[in-house]
Each structure stands twice: as structure tokens, then as C-alpha cells.
Amino acid sequence: MVFELLNPELRKIVEKRFKEPTLPQKLAIKPILEGKNILLLAQVGTGKTESAMLPLFHFVMEQKPNPISILYITPLKSLNRDLLDRLLWWCNEIGIEVSVRHGDTTAYERRQQAEFPPQLLITTPETLQAILPGKVIREHLKNIKWVVVDEVHEIADSKRGTQLTLALERLKALSEHDFQVIGLSATVGSPEEVAKFICPQNSVEIIRAVTSKTMDIKVINPKIEAGDIRIGEKVFTSTETAARLREIMELIKKSRSVLTFTNTREFAEILSSRIKTLDRDFPAGVHHSSLSKDVRIKAEKEFKEEKIKSIISTSSLQLGIDIGSVDLVLQYMSPRTISQCIQRIGRSGHGAEKISKGIIISTDEDDIFESAVIARKALKEELEPLKFHEKSLDVLAHQIVGLTLDYWKIELQKAYDIVRKAYPYRQLSYTEFLEVCKQLQDLGLVFLNGEIKKKLRGFEYYYSNLSTIPDTKQFRVFNTLDNSYVGVLDEEFIALHGETNTNFILKGESYRIISIEEDKVMVEPTVDIEASIPGWEGELIPVPFEVAQEVGHLRRIIKEKLEEDGKEAVELIRALYPMDENSARKMVKIIKKQVEYGIVPDDKTILIEDFENSVILHACFGSMVNETLGRFLIALLTARMGSVGLRTDPYRIVLDFQAKNLELVKEILKTDPEMIRNYLEISLTKSNLFEWKFVHVAKRFGAISRGADYGKVRMGKIIDSYVGTPIYKETLKELEIEKLDIERTAEILRKIQKDEIHVVFKPGLSPIGKLGIKRKYAEVVGPERPEVEIFDLFRKRLMSTKVRLVCVNCGEWTRTFKVKDLPKEIKCSKCEAKLLGVVHPSRTEITKVIKKKLRGTSLTDEEDKKFDRVMKSADMFLVYGPKAAIALAGKGVGPQTASRILAKFHKTEDDFLRDILEAERLYLKNKRFWKV
């Protein structure tokens, strides 16, 4: 048994925790004791942490090295209480000093760590950046002999990971030892690449501690039952959604502890609120990154203590608490990627002998196909490869400044050599390196003269940009019709879609943007749910090319089987994919309808439909290829014929035309694939998406201060001034890595042109086409509000608005009324005059202005304006009575606008109120352009 290889005292402590080693411990302890660098791939709850730490504790007990000897690096969101509790337990038992260093560590604790260093320091990638230049602790970091990088899969494909690789090279340059590296990770699609990522200069042994029996995954699509109609009516949703809600609640009730995952914060909130509407006491909590830390900790605690049976969560719990009682994971809608599916479902059934059980609750036919493919791939562990951020220039800029803090000054060649050792920078040219150095000099962050020298501004920049994660601002959303608070939208959504008249979905309702003011978005409800953009769109993880291709392949299998026997088609796909009968029947039914239509788009066939003012390209190429192909098409279309709208999903590209030209679409598909990058660059650099990305890259470079707001008006000029610079180039590169797939798109164009992928043009809208047009994102959204209901909200708010009446004849009388309570006949109780001005209730100072005027005392310019306004409102009130007060109660409706509305002929009161509503909209849209 591997435990026998450990120090005798340590073995006694191990016996308190483990009766026998888990699979990762059996496989990993010996190679680590032999001094090998390893990458350990294992599932959640299998003793991964102890697999790494037990041999390192052995080394410490045997060698008694100078502290700090072990550095344990973990992503912040997995720096959870369970991990810390476990490591603290081991260190207390063994008698080893352990300390945690992160952003919340107090100044006192930091001083203690510097003066009395621990043997084991637990930190985050960002905090490692902070301590590397520290004068005192830097001396202790020279002693590091072992580095553990936890949850490698979580950061390897992000700029956090790229930053960490450079930090590790800086640490190696500092260290007196060639430290041993141990990477801990969930199963990944490219383990050889990940191994080089954490330890590029030395060999790494990859240990796959994964058992075959681990997962039990099933895709279900609940059938509608009699009671679902009543449920749907109660929560204002469709009967199909009601069936899914009922099924979720039943599955939670039948289980001990259930983690319920959704793809977005928005869906977590919607799902939770619908369940609470059905049963206020239902034992479920909510957990996502927008909630306060206290709320999240409370939900975790109650779940761990089994006071609640489920937490409805986003990825905020994907790496979070370690709860052995979880016996089921529910995934609402497709998890979109195989790795996300495995990580989430792996949260259940902890322990070597337990099975991780997961159920994917699918919605429409697109979702069923996608969920089925992902479930099959997850069971076979066919993971998508990670896509690294190669040669990130903004991360490089930060680390170059970091090197000046490490050494005060450093030779260009030495700095370049350190950088090149990091895996993402292995192909960085010296010219590219120098360009970044010169950019830093231009920004005043370093001195450059054969050497790179520290500058005071560089110090400030470095410490204010420790994190590569952009600070995303949130905008509060308010309903202008009743002044109610709706929720929040992220900065990315505003940057990409924040235009007046844009429709979007938030908290299950559809709204139209009226105006955007600093951190506020003023909206009104709209009936047009189908044309709305989901407010959580930016959060969605791209569906991989491989998944979408298999969805196309599966469509083809069903089509071919239908030509033989429809019943056998259901049995066949259930044999191939883990799903219930209802899911299989729906899949077969939609393909049967599509066959009747004439053509089934699949992995080798693109169907292009001509419908009304839209062209729908059915392309099973995944999120990033379809986004790339779609942007390429509109880049060429808009150059020839003006504005063209674009919507994409993993299976479609929808082009919306003002004047359609199908022949031009055919012609563009014949374009030389080598030209895609050039056309995209021209198009992308003019887009909102480029502006938004540019802001974050420029902040990481120090060209824009970290706290600066995104401003569309200024950004165009700023971007123009940086064309061709490393900041500009990195923005394009980041977009290409995170949002696009240019190489694969070019390959698809080549196949289209060789007829290896068939393209079929057809008029009308097919059954699969209707799925895309109706926008499946409206799932769990309430039924469309009738215009009458929306207008009624405005009427209620307006009629409940308070106004102040003030006598302009004597200035002695004033009184506040709700508009609906205004008497038809009213006069001043002091002088009995009917010359009553209408002002906002807060304008109490107006009586002083009136009295001053009546006394003949000269008024200031400001007072003169106030008197003029109140006099005009009094004239209107004299002529129109309470109707004038109603008009003046509208937001931004002054005497001039009110006079214009009152002078119009209105057949009904509703016509009158609609004119006030229109005036409000106009005011909200235009007020940001007015001079204050």
C-alpha cells in the first residue's frame, strides 16, 4: 500500500482519515515521492488534494526545509472553506505552519507571513503576482521546493492561466531550487498541452485516476400531465415549462440533496422564483455570483446541514463546496459543453465507490438533440480541447512591469528569455516583445534604454491590475411605466446591445430600452418576446463545433432510419444516446416533419431558407464558427447593400434584410477563404464588440485607468489613436480566441466550394427553421403581455403621481394631491382665485418666488424662469382644469409640451394618456443630449 512509503508519524495521522488509499492516491503518491512533475487528472471527491499533499508533507517532515517550501495555488472561487479546513487539519496534526494569502488577508497577517513564514502558503494566481516583488517575503519564496497548482482546467484556457505561467517563470528565476510541480485537474480534452502549460521546461507524468463506472447521465423531456395546465396558469408560463418545473420539484423531493444547475444567473433566479410561487416553503435556495457573499454562504451552510434539499446555482458552485450528501445533479437545459457537464454532474456521489448521477432536463427540440450528444460524449469522456490564449500581449505588459519591480532594472534579453520559457509565449518573437516594451514606455510605465527600468507609475499600474478578470459594471434597470426596479444588466450586454428601442428579456419579462443614463437603464414593457434578446446572452458558453456536428449527424441517422421504420428510429437513438422515450419521440417527430418539408440540414448539408425579410442558414457548426461565418457574411453584405441584421446560434445564422438579395449571399459563399481574416478585421474593428473588448485590453495595458467607464462617444477616437499598436492587435486576437474560429470557418468555405458540404436553397420556413425564429431563449418566460396590460401600468402610475397646486394670485395657499384625487372644481381657500399653478410636490420654494413677484421685488434669472413656468401651468389649469395637471404629471412634460398635448383633439381618455406616454418616451430618449 502506498501509505507505507510515507514517514511513520505521517502514516499514523493518515489512518485517522483514510482506511485505504483512493485511486488518485494509489497512482500519484509514489511518482511525487520520486520527485517527478505530475499532472493528476481525477474526479471531484476522490482525495485529489491529499494525493498531492501527503508526499509533500512527508518531504517536509523528513527534510525540514526552510520556509516557505510548499506553494499551493488555487483559483479564487475554488479557494473554498472545505479545502482550507482539510489542509488546516493535516497541518495541525503534523505540526506544520500553514497560512493563507489572498485579497482579503489583513495587513497584520501579511506582516506575520513575512516575519514568520509558514512551510505551506496557500494563495491565488492574482495574489502570487502581489507577493513576488515583496522585499521580505521574496526572500522566503526563494526556498520554494514544491508548487501545487489546483483546478488547472479551470484557468488553463483563460488569461488568468496565462498570467500564472509567467508568474511561475518569474518564481523559477528567483528560486534557489528547480521546484517540483504538481498539477491537479478534472479530466481535460488536451492533457499533454495542459501538462506543458504548468511545466514547459521539464517532463511531466500524466496520471489519469479516473474510473470507468463513474457517471450515470440521462436526458429527459417531461410529458405534460393533467395538473400542468393549472401550474402553468399559476406561474404565468407554458404547459410544457410547467411540466418541467413539476418534474424538477418531484426529483428534488425524492432525493437527499440535489444541486440544480442553470446556465445563467438569470435562469437561476427565474427557476427559483417560479418554484417559490408554486410552493413558498419549498426547501431550495439560490446561489450565483451576483448575490452577496453572505447570501451565498448562508445557502451553502443550510444545504450542507440539509436544512434545504437543493441549491439552484450557476457555475458559482461548480467548484465550490464539497458535499458528500449530494446524490443527484439536475442540469436545466443543455450544459453546452462536455467538460461543464462532467464537472457539474461530478459534484454528486462523492467517494470512490459512488456513482455520479445527473439528469439533464431538456426543453425544445434543439435542446434535446444537443443535450443527448453532450450526455453521450460525457459518458465516453470525449472532451473538447482547451483553447489557450497564446502570446497575450496585455498579460505580457503587466508581467514586464512586474519584472522591473522584481529586479529594479533588467536586461531586455534576460526579460525576454524568462518570458519565452512560459508555454503560451514559446513562439513570441523578440520584435513582438520589443513592441510591448515600447508601448509601456510610451504609456510612462517603464524606462527603456537597453534595459527595462522601474518607474513609479509602473508600481501603481502593476498593483491595480493584478487581476486579468475585467471589472464589469452593472446597470440597474427601471420600468418607466410604474417606476419599479426590474433588475440588472451587465456592461457587456449594454456594450453589445445597449441601443434605444432594443428589446430584451429580463426576469422572464420582455422590455424595450428607452434610455441609458450612467448606471441606469430606463425601459418599458413590450409585447414582442420573440424579437427580444435574452439579457443573460453574454454569459452563455459557446457550444463546440464537435457537438453541433454530431447533432447534424444524429439528424441524418434519424432521417435515414425513418425511410425504413419510424418506430425503430426511436429505439435506435435510445440505444445510442442516454435519454427517455419522450425525448426520442420528439427528436424523431421534428425530423419527420422536416423530411416532409423536403430537406434535413445535417453535418454535411447546409439549408438556406428564404423567409419574409430574413435568410436562415441552417449550419451545424457550433457557436464560434457560426458567429464567424455570420460576421463574415454581413461584412460583405453591408459593404454592398447597407445595414444587415445578424443573429446566430450553434445551428443557424439568421440574416435580417431591409432589401433582400439572395444572389449576393450565394456569391459571397464563393469568396476566397484566405480573405476571411481581412474582411473580418475590417468589420470587427467597427463593431460594439471590438469597442467593449478594447476597453478591457487597454485597461490591462494601463492605457485606460481601471475605474474608467465605457463611453461609446469617446471610444472611437481613442481606438483610432491606437491602430496597429500591441493594444489594438491584442483586442483582435482576444476576440478571435474567445468569440471566433477563423481557421475552421475557412475550411468550411473550402468544403462548400468543393461541394463536400452541400448547400441547398429553398423558399419558406421549415419546422427546424421555426425553432430558430421563435428564439428558444424565451424558455421559462411568462406569456406575452397584452398591450392593454402594459398601458394600464402607465395609467396607474400616472394617476397615482402627486402634484402640488399653488395659488399664483396670492401665493398664500398650496396643497398636494394625487392626480386621480383632484376635484373637478377647485380654488384657493385664501383668495378664492382659480389661477392655480401645477408643480412637483418637492418644489416648496415656489410660494416664496410667487410672493416675491407679487411684492414687485426683482427676481434672479433662475427665479424668473420658475415663475414663468408656474404661471404657464396656472393658465393651462384655468382652461383645462385637472386635465392640465394630468399632462404635467408626466415625466419630463413641461408647460410647453403639455400645452401641445392639451390643444390636440382626443377621441378618448386613452388617446390623451397615450400622447403623454409618447412625450415621456421622447423626453427619456433625448434628455442626455440636453445642456444642463
> Within the largest sheet, what's the order of strands?
3-4-2-5-6-1-7
The main β sheet shows up as:
7 strands, parallel
Distance between the termini: 79 Å
| Spatial shape | globular
Notes on the structure:
- With 932 residues, this protein is an alpha/beta fold.
- It folds into six domains: 2-209, P-loop containing nucleotide triphosphate hydrolases (Rossmann fold, 3-Layer(aba) Sandwich); 215-361, Rossmann fold (3-Layer(aba) Sandwich); 393-464, Orthogonal Bundle (Arc Repressor Mutant, subunit A); 474-539, no CATH class; 545-774, no CATH class; 789-929, no CATH class.
- The strands form six sheets. It has a seven-stranded parallel beta sheet, with helices on both faces. Strands 8-13-12-9-11-10 form a six-stranded parallel beta sheet, with helices on both faces. Strands 18-17-21-20-19-22 form a six-stranded mixed beta sheet.
- It is globular.
Descriptors:
globular, Rossmann fold, alpha/beta, 38 helices, 48% helix, 932 residues, 6 domains, six-stranded parallel sheet
In short:
By secondary structure, the chain is α/β, with parallel strands linked by helices.
Topology:
Elements: H1 8-17, H2 23-33, E1 37-42, H3 48-63, E2 70-73, H4 81-94, E3 98-101, H5 107-115, E4 120-123, H6 125-131, H7 135-141, E5 146-149, H8 152-155, H9 159-174, E6 180-185, H10 191-198, E7 204-209, E8 215-220, H11 228-234, H12 239-254, E9 258-261, H13 265-278, E10 284-287, H14 293-304, E11 310-313, E12 328-332, H15 338-345, E13 356-361, H16 365-379, H17 393-407, E14 409-411, H18 412-421, H19 430-442, E15 446-448, E16 451-454, H20 456-464, E17 474-479, E18 484-490, H21 491-497, E19 503-506, E20 509-517, E21 520-525, E22 533-534, H22 545-562, H23 566-576, H24 581-597, E23 605-611, E24 614-618, H25 622-641, E25 644-649, E26 652-657, H26 662-668, H27 676-684, H28 688-701, H29 712-721, H30 726-739, H31 742-753, E27 758-763, H32 767-773, H33 787-799, E28 802-807, E29 814-818, E30 836-839, H34 846-854, H35 861-880, H36 882-888, H37 895-903, H38 909-926
